[in-house]
Structures are given as C-alpha cells and as structure tokens.
Amino acid sequence: MSDEIFTLTAHALRDRFRGGALRPSEAVEACLRRIDQVDGRLHAFLHVDREGALAEARRWDAVYAASSGGDGLPPLAGVPVAIKDNMCTCGLPTTAGSRILGQWRPPYDATVIERLRAAGAVILGKTNLDEFAMGSSTENSAFGPTHNPWDLDRVPGGSSGGSAAAVAAGEAPLALGSDTGGSIRQPAALCGVVGLKPTYGRVSRYGLIAFASSLDQIGPFSRDVADCALLLDAIAGHDPRDSTSASIPCPDFAGGLTPDVRGMRLGLPRETFGEGLERGVRDAVLAAARHMESLGARVEEVSLPHLEHALPTYYLIAPAECSSNLARYDGVQYGPRMETDDLITMYARTRAQGFGAEVKRRIMLGTYALSAGYYDAFYLKAQRVRTLVRRDFEHALEKVDLLLMPVSPSVAFRIGEKVDDPLQMYLSDIYTIPVNLAGNPGISISCGLAASLPVGLQLVGRPFDEATVLRAAYAYEQTTEHHRARPPL
Amino acid sequence: MPHRMDLSQVDHVARLARLELSDEERRRFAEQLGRILEHVAALDALDTSGVEPTSHVLPMTNVLREDQVTPSLPREVVLAEAREQEDGYFKVPRVILPD
C-alpha cells in the first residue's frame, strides 16, 4: 500500500502528529495538493478554504511542538475534515447546492462544526450535494454533478456525493454528510467508503439546513471504521439548541471498538434480497453474511413485512416536511431577489429562479399532500404506515442484534441515466429509506466490488446502539481487505 | 386518494407553494406528480385503522428550563445578507397594491 500522506486515515495521521513524524500543516498541504490534482475531474468540493485550513493547521503545528507527544490534545487535533455544504460554517460560503442562497455566509457555526473545532479538526472546505440534499446522485446540485472516483462517467450517489467522493479519492480523510433517506449510506456504498447514519437524535441538527426535520441526521464518512467511531465521538451528544437531540449518554465509540462478533445474532431481512437487487450486489452482501458467520456470528432470516410500503411513505412525509421547511427561502432575509412591484410575485418569482427541478417537484408534492382535503388521505396515512415500518424494525431487532442487508440495489449508475425518471431515482434508496422512517442507526461499509465498482454492506442496529453496529463493522473490516481498495485515479 | 393531477390542480398547488411555473414545468409536473401519486397509492391497500401516526421517532417530552437572557446575534450581522434593509428592518416590496 502506498504510504503517501493523502492515503492515511485520521488515526494514522494523529499517531504521526503525536510521534513527531508529521505536522498537521503537512497533512493539510497533502490534501490541498490532492484536491488540485483530482478535483477538476471529480468536482467533490464547492469551496476550499485554503488559507483558513493552513492557518489553523499551523496553529496546531505549534501546539504539538510545545506538547509532550501530543499529551492532553483533543482527539482530532490537526486532522482535516470536509463538510457537506448544507451545514452552517461561520464566515464560509454555505450554499446547500442551491442558487437560492447566493453567496450566503452564515453568521454562526452549526453545533457539529463547533464540536469539530473543539475536537481540534481543521475544516478543509465544503462539499457538493444534491440541492437541499434532495437526490440520490448529486446531479441535482445547482453547481454541476460530482463524479465517482471509481468511474468518472458514473454518479457518486447522493445526496452527500461530494463528501463520499472526497474521502474515497484521498482529498480528505474524514467528512460529514447528512442522511434523510440514505444520503450518507448510499454514496458511501457507491464510492467504497464507510458512512454512518447515527440514530435520529444522536447528533444535533442545529445549523444543518433543514430538509425533512423528522428524518434528517448528520453523520461521518471515513476510510475505515476506527475513523468513523472517532468522528462520531466528536459530534455526538445532547445539544440544548436542538429540542430533538436526545439526552442519552454517549459511550466512547472509538475506545470501545473490539473486533468481536462471536455469539452476535445477525438477521437477513428476506424482503431486501428480492426482485430488483442486482446479482453482483446480492452475491457480495451474502458473501459478507457468510464471512460474519465464519467469525462466530449467528445468521438467520428475518422479515420486515412493510418494507415495500416504506418508499411511498417516505415520498409523502419527506416532501411534506420539505415544503414547510423551504417556505423560508423567499428573497427577504438572504439570497438573491427578483425585483417586482408586489410581495407575492416577488416570492413566487424568486423561488422560481432560485430552486431547481427536483426541489420544485418535492415542494409541489409536499404542498399537495398537506393541502386542504388531502391531509388525512396522504400525510396522516403516511404517518400511520410509518408506525408499521417502525414496528417491523422493533420486532426484527427483538430477535437479532443487527440487521444485515444491501445498501443500494445497484452499483454506481451512469451520470444522466435516471435524471428524467424521478421514480427510478427514488428506488435507489429503497433499502436505506426504511431505516430513516424507523430512526435506527445504520452503517455502510465496503464488502467488495461488482463489475469493478464498490458494493456496500448495510448493518442496522437498535436505536442508540451505534456501538454494536460499529463493533460488527470493525470485526468485518479487520478480517477483510475490501476497505483498502482505492479507486484508480 | 385521487391519483391524477390536472393543470388547474398544478396551478392551485403552485400558488399555495409560492412558485411561478413555466408552461413547460406545469405540463411536466402534472405528468410526473401524477405518476408519483400513482406509486404512493399502494398505501391505500393497507389497513391502518387503529394505528397511531408517527410524527416523531423519539419519545418526546416538553423541555423546561429557566428563562434566562443569553446573547443573540447582533442585528447588523443578521441584516448583512439581506437584499434590502432600512432602519434596522428587512425591507420588502409593497404588500398592498393601489387599485
């Protein structure tokens, strides 16, 4: 394996900083060089904060030099991190992949950004995404698509495609994404990196630009499971500024990692291995299940009987919440404005110019589902079915410790392949959406290649039991080589 | 559930959503939203009588705290990104038009 700096994990960087073999500024310079080298082809970043990142890294250089082997320094001191551009970064452009925010610079940091800074992380820049995180391919960005580092003609997945591509390509060892219906796990799978959606409520959403508030959750991208735990440790925990963040204690996720699944019960939901699943993906995921069995886990079949109803449920609830959340973009407080004589026309024209096709489609769908006469038939019905989906997960996870299933029904698809067919695009999240409806934590880790493209393995745990999810993922990773495969860039 | 959308419904919803649509968008959304609504019609077949709706996955309780004054963002910082402002307020176009 190449020992170039840009290929190193966060924990490897940290060990070298502590041992004096490497300085944080050298790590940031290596990321910036890698960005210069490959991002013209990938377009993973919307904004790179060169000067800010270098200044912060040099500050950490001095702190390490004055320390005794890094003793007492915060866990991510000097480690570069990329941020999906729907999280507020004070003074840095935050676009949500949309034209409607213009060159908005937030006057405050999201809680996750505050926590990252407190943990010593260096913010490298902001990554590309589907507009307002609505999409599964990053093609809905107003600033053009991101390309998959494994095959530049293919999508990286979405909506956190920029973060996934950046980590896969070595532009950043760590990144944050957000996951409303699979937007961390699906791009992690399609780019061959680790992506975790924590339990709803585990990570504060304060300063995350809202899409669907009852589903949105921020989580880590990394190149191995130890780094995933390290980044989760930095961002997790109760925040009084987000009333939906849970007051549940966080264990030490990184410190508690052990590669041991002996006696662990894993359930394969039979509904996730049916029609529509590509052969290569199915083979790789089932091989991973057999591997877990060989490590001492007990594998059995379970059922999620309402799985087929999750997609229609999601496509009522998420657009309904989106239509409400996006009402705030009206040309008054920030962003560009279309000049007209009266207020209502100004709103309608500003929004017409500022939003892209998918965002408009979802605002329309959500407004319809919430409108007088349809509320009970659509929104309330969907909320009742959501209860049935949740119960499926509760029942299945009474019998087993984790669910083991595919992340996405296919490997990365071609750019342009699904842009004109919203329903086909929505189907690429069929195995991730139910997990958001239920609220449980889920991880995607690489379990091999199919047709030279990465396949993701999804492990889903009980609410607030990220520790077991990470332990199983770690055991798999420590006994396989798939996570070491890097794209041929 | 009704599962079609005609142009007059598209126009009604667009008005509610404060979105000005082009003719091409109106026709495209009528077709695409109709197909999505057909897809979500699968829920009709499910009997959900007696099932409580889930608005939120966490067991939520009211959060109570002392009413303490804490610093807010300075007014000029909040107004800095607005297209128009006057005397410390956001300024918008005329709300009531003369006849």
User: What profile does the largest beta sheet of chain B have?
Assistant: 2 strands, antiparallel
Report helical residue fraction of chain A.
25-40%
Strand content of chain B: under 5%
**What is the terminal-to-terminal distance of chain A?**
15 Å
The CATH topology name of chain A reads Amidase signature (AS) enzymes
Task: Label the overall shape of chain A.
Answer: globular
Count of helix runs of chain A: 15
Alpha carbon gap, first and last residue of chain B? 41 Å
Average pLDDT over all residues of chain B: 90
Q: Reading side by side through the largest sheet of chain B, how are the strands ordered?
A: 1-2
* Largest sheet geometry of chain A: 11 strands, mixed
Task: Explain how this protein is built.
The complex is a heterodimer of chains A (489) and B (99). Chain A is built from 15 helices and 11 strands. Chain A has one domain (5-267, 400-484): Amidase signature (AS) enzymes (Alpha-Beta Complex), CATH 3.90.1300. Chain A is globular. Chain A has helices at residues 10-19, 24-42, 50-66, 111-118, 161-168, 185-191, 225-235, 279-294, 307-325, 343-354, 357-370, 375-399, 422-427, 433-438, 466-478, and strands at 45-48, 80-84, 122-127, 174-178, 194-197, 218-222, 265-269, 298-302, 402-406, 442-450, 453-460. Chain A starts with 9 loop residues before the first helix and ends in an 11-residue tail after the last helix. Helix content of chain A is 39%, strand content 12%. By secondary structure, chain B is mainly alpha-helical. Chain B has a two-stranded antiparallel sheet with strand order 1-2. The radius of gyration of chain B is 23 Å and the shape is flat. The mean pLDDT of chain B is 90. The chains are: A alpha/beta (489), B mainly alpha (99). At the A-B interface, helix 9, helix 10, helix 11 and helix 12 of A face helix 1 and helix 2 of B.
